[in-house]
Protein 1
Amino acid sequence: MTVPTYTEQRPAAPAGRPGLAAQLLRRKPIGQMVNEAETGHGGTRLVRSFGVMQLTMISVGATLGTGILVILGESVPLAGPAIWISFAIAGFAALLSAVSYAEMAGLVPVAGSSYSYSYATLGEGMAWICGWCLVLEYAVSVAAVAVGAGQYVNETLAVFGQVLPDAISQPPGDGGGIMNIPAMVIVLLAMILLVRGAKESAWVNTAIVVVKVGILIFFCAVAFTAFNAGNFEPLLPMGAAGVSAAASSVFFSYIGFDAASTAGEEARNPKRDLPRAIMISMLIVTTIYVLVAVAAVGARPWGWFDGNEAALVKILEETTGQPWIALVFAVGAVLAIASIVLTVLYGQTRILLSMARDGLIPKVFGRVSKRTGTPVAGTLIVGVLVALTAGLVPLGALADATSIGTLFAFALVNVAVIYLRRTRPELKRTFRVPLFPLTPILGALMCAYLMANLGADTWVTFGIWMLVGLAAYFGYGRRHSRVAALSQEEYRELSSRELSSTPSVPEPSKADLS
């Protein structure tokens, strides 16, 4: 018997809706999620066109470059020469969560990332909290990365003796800035590309990632020619607390790996390829981050980085004395930032699509264009809002706010793995977290530890954001939830029909592959 979709259900009368506690605990069956992904929203579904390479490049594109190209100047003063240790700690914390993501991505191969995983395991209440954190993580991180574009554009123009005025290359409050125009332009260009189609966006991203990896390897080769081991003494001038604080800050640099999990409905073989893409991307990104951090500190004393937003370009220029080298790197850095903006903005729109499909946010975010196979309206709305944020908000506030939302979402995924292993051990898993339950427990604890190291201002921002989220849920989400619209009998029937293993994902059609 076919499991009905929510669109086939008649909304229950208000009197038949569950109480608040019961609604918050209602889970969405995994089989229901997969069936809805295949039927789409309003009869139009996303196109399955991604293989493991495209998924890996989405993950690498969303991750690689942020901490090195944008916030290195802010994080080195916190940890000193031990900044590479901070990157390693943050990478280890991210890896603990990445393996949990890999298991859940193979088990729940749909769009929505940790929001969908939480809905399938912990219920609507935690799913909403997770989804609201993801809105903070993705949309704000796009803006945070784009903010760094202005400085690299200036580094490019400086080779020709030109520079953008601070008024149009810095956000308000930063050196006389009024609006960061380069940041806004990059976001809007990414938005236009995503509207055209996911497959086209993936190929553009793949090409940019190849360039990005190439310029970072090139930087290491040049920086090591000026390597001075004395720059690492003392290794811990700010103590262990400084290393921990920097690790909490640069964890922002690792958020991209979960972007691949938002492509669950556009992967040709999500159960096999999503776990592979997540793990491969984590290995690539962590290796390059640590290598570049060591090369940069080896080339310049750690105090030199304070206030240097485009630190890597300046190291190249000072080391080689050749302006054209700085030009090539600066252009590559702008492209690198563009790829992060493109892939993270992509992930944001897919998470909102899943939330709209469940009725928790307005349905406009869940509409998929029959012509392009993408959520056009949602992409346009998100793109414009993120562009305004990038143009008007300083980098530091954005980066820390993103980190706390990311850490909270990662912790929930670790908990979801533990929950499903205990309650649904019979489910077929294409990837299993090693050393269970130690790994997900350590992953959740590491996320909590890094959250605790974030500043009071960040916690205040997070608290305000969550209060706004609660208001949005009670004002809209609770009344429009499709899970809550089911009667007790309908909900029990759907839950009892859930298969003992996740439904298989159909092979892609010729139209998907063309």
Protein 2
Amino acid sequence: MADILVNGVTKSFEQDRVILDGISFQIDPGERVAILGDNGAGKTTLFRILTGELTPDKGSVSVPKGKRVGYVAQINTAKSEDTVEDVLRQAYADVIRAGEELDRMHREMQTVSASKYDEMARRFEARGGYGWEAEMAKIANGLHIGPEMRAQRFSTLSGGEQTRVCLARMIMEETDILLLDEPTNHLDVESLEWLEEYLLHFRGTVLVISHDRYFLDHIAQRIIEIKRGKAEFYSGNYTYYVQERELRYQQQLMQYNREQAKVKQLEFQIARLKAWGSVYDNPALHKKAAAMEKRVERVQQTDKPLKDTRMEAAFSSMDFRADLVLELKDIAKSFDGQTLFTGVSGQIRGGKERVALLGPNGAGKSTLLKIILGQLAPDAGSVKTGPSVRTAYLPQQVVFEHPERTLIDTMLYETSCSPQEARDRLGAFRFSGEDQFKTVSQLSGGERARLKLCIIMMNRANLLILDEPTNHLDLSSREWIEEAVSQFEGVLLFVSHDRYFIRRFANHVWEIDNGFTDYPDCDYDRYRRIRSLNSMQPAPEPKEQKETKTVKPERSASARDPKRERKMNVLEREIAAKEEQLKQYDDKMQAVASDYVELQRLTEEKDALEQEIENMYAEWERMSSD
């Protein structure tokens, strides 16, 4: 029996604007299914219908009786005085009450029979009564809800922190069906990995809305895309969805073109038959033409496939005239007596460097960006930029000083371009027609980021700094921004928790996490492997010197045997060579994106190479610990 059954659901909020148009699907027990679609497509509306918060105009949804459904938006019911601990403990309310009853019975043992007490104790233990506190701490810590945060009032938390707490509570409630609406928002990489691991081992059913492509690749078994009110189905993860979507587009386009060619041929014949029928006054020819017109209607069965327009503009960047782009020396920063970071030292040289600034939430990544930009002064240390560096910055929250201005006026004021240039540039950034005369205040967050990029790209920057550029954007907007950034020829420095974005661009990593670490010539996959290796080894003794270091896998004392040293040196060179090969696959795959067969072949080759590198790292680890 299906856990979720949706049958012909239709929902409208405005006349002539149908959000969901007869959607039907089934989700079986234990499945992990992702719901995709642009912002406003109706994904959250569907969730609210599934939970009974909204009633469909037509159709029905059903969930088996006795199945517990968990939805983060439903459980944010904390009182103003409740602490985070209070909110989390609500998940164990039944167990806590049973424990209190057991304590009462224990105090009144003279009036309670031993058999009744033993029965209550067995029931309490069966419900996890003796382990709920440890379980609560384990889940809370996995989502970085530490003891200090648990002591705070829930109402004082940010929106993202409240969502994280509600997500933790829902997991604690051990529901049968999880409805997760953007669960990865506001989570750092460690929390994301913890959540992925939890969901992979979750025995119930998961229905998730997410724009985190790396997350979807790991947990989704199939995908339902809501597009123009209809549902399309893909039996695989995000990578499969992208490949299959392109294949379906190409197939539909070919079918449409074949039909249009046939229609054109028939219309030519119809026009000729009508002309002959009129010239020769022949009713039979007119009758034949009418029959062929009906045939045209039967031939035209495929709609023209639609595809998001691609970016048609490129950055106007300046060339560097010096090797040095940016140099940080012993940067330190504290707030209210709490140290964010100290001893931050690193360099970015010329060329096409793509530096990812990574670390947990609250580590100070955005603060460091503001120090680099001169918006904040460091407590110690210095920032130096090259003489020809021209910086552009896309903040996490894009705000315009004059939101009352139209898009075209904003372009004219901020770039001093001509009206025609402004219109052309906005059109290249998918702001066309009447959209150009909207006010900035009418734009969504993703549209404001797109407008800001449009302005930035005209300012001839050669150092582009991005702070969470894909946050809160839907999939098409994320893909579009990535396409824009990929056109940039200068140096990129960015903060992001979007692992798909990091994996695509990073070739150098800075990490803030209890100190500062520099990983030069390091993409995201290699960074994760190095961190994994380092976590297997004993923690080094603390040093009084600067915390900055360039990371390579460290050798243990037992690796000093000359023969083993030589083997490890050879293996390190082989790993480096394989990683260089791996870097080339992204460009190859991008070049054949429309060729499904070739793309599949390259994907399989890349997966095999990644596995080979993992095995080589494992062998290196074995040799270093022997």
Protein 3
Amino acid sequence: MALDDRKGVWKSGKGKGRHTPKGRQVTDEAWDQVKALLGDRPRNRDLLIEFMHLIQDSYGHLSTQHLAALAEELRLSQAEVYEVATFYAHFDVVREGEAPPPALTIRVCDSLSCELAGAQQLKAALEDGLNPADVRVLRAPCMGRCDTAPVLELGHHHIDHATPEKVKAAIAAGHTHADIPDYETFQAYAADGGYETLKDLRANGHWEDVQAKIKESGLRGLGGAGFPSGTKWGFVRGNEGPRYLAVNGDEGEPGTFKDRYYLERTPHLFLEGMLIAAWAVEADKAFIYMRDEYPAVLHILATEIKALEDAGIVDPGYIDLRRGAGAYICGEESAMIESIEGKRGIPRHRPPYVAQVGIFGRPTLVHNVETLHWIARINREGPEVLNTTEKNGRVGLRSYSVSGRVKKPGVHLLPAGSTILDIIDAAGGMMDGHTFKAYQPGGPSSGLLPATINDVPLDFDTLQPLGTFIGSAAVVVLSDHDQARDAALNMLKFFEDESCGQCTPCRVGCEKAVKLMQADTWDRALLDDLIGIMTDASICGLGQAASNPIKLTMEHFGDEVG
């Protein structure tokens, strides 16, 4: 009997059967589109975020079909790709049956300096005056342009001192791309002796001599932690290679814009300093992690890195420029490294430290942008460029990002011993009709101090006795027109939004604090308990310092909180 004539379960079974595997299917159209965007780029897992940017930029959102196709192309699970896409604020994930966002997005900064300048009223006016079917208006954290508050981003075009009229004019003109400022190009920098120091070190230098020069200058990390810069080099070199260098360009602390200031003017001072540091630790590769809120800087760096490759100063691909995607937590060095590896920016538990186990598990030297700017200057001009300036017993120079109720907000390079009164004076004094009331000495993580504390140098180690720190030297000045409690609430709302959610003390603590701070009278006992838990039990500096605005406001502005 022929097999086809036999009776069997395969002949009489009534099951539906499956035509495809379980789960979301990959469509040929989406897969072809993703492959076309990726081109001949290597399908490396660490490039996941870069590939998401390609899709977001091309289609205005990330559809689940495109995410499924990207997962298939990189041989990753769809869940892994989805969790990364939904972690970052600048990716718009659109599920089946959902409408994609409008073609234009306006992000209105609502951090402290912009709020003081009327950001909430600006956002409300835009929401009332624009068609939501054509343009969506979102609130957004600090964009690093506090000196021109209020600020918004239309597509990738930043509008300084923004008004509804400026926005409508930009929309009508189709002006949605970044304006590139005039800056010192490779040709101009090289004509002035640029990269000669690097070439000489590569040919004849000894890293210990350079390290000694950095230590002699007194340079400390200028991203906020203040760790002695030269000391890091020994830690990294003490571990077996291959080694990497990572530049932390995720300048997300509200009120901070000094890195952008230098990069939009003298990018090659930073790049030469980076290459000197990479040479010192024998780094096999240098990664630059730059925040997505700086599109002009990303364009400048991409252009000038290509110029360095063309000039033979670096091999093609030695400098790997990575683009963030809207996550303040990636300013924490281990979270930044997770993001460079194409993952969610979740801070790592330490030890081990990144000098031992960093990018791809290898020893990694992490420096801030401004730190590398000074490394180049110290090697070109000598340690005297920093250590010959002294004021109030403090040695060195600091780049203060100054904003708020002052006449001339901006980056002011002053002696490290400068007090808040010196800084306000350098910024042109208080705005007319405003009396100095309070100030944020180093970003929202540092909280608020009253105007009566005005004789303390704003430098490393000087503010700790007051329960705060200099951090990134992001100084926001408040006046008698402002309420300290409102400023503190603005800071906590920022931390609530930007908590990565990994640890309960930070995730729940920030949310709880915001609710308690919105009451007419603050529950001081409950807030004190919350401060202790967040400070002691949070994994990283975000949760550990998020309570500073609460603590210092209750201490110095108790009349406002009841």
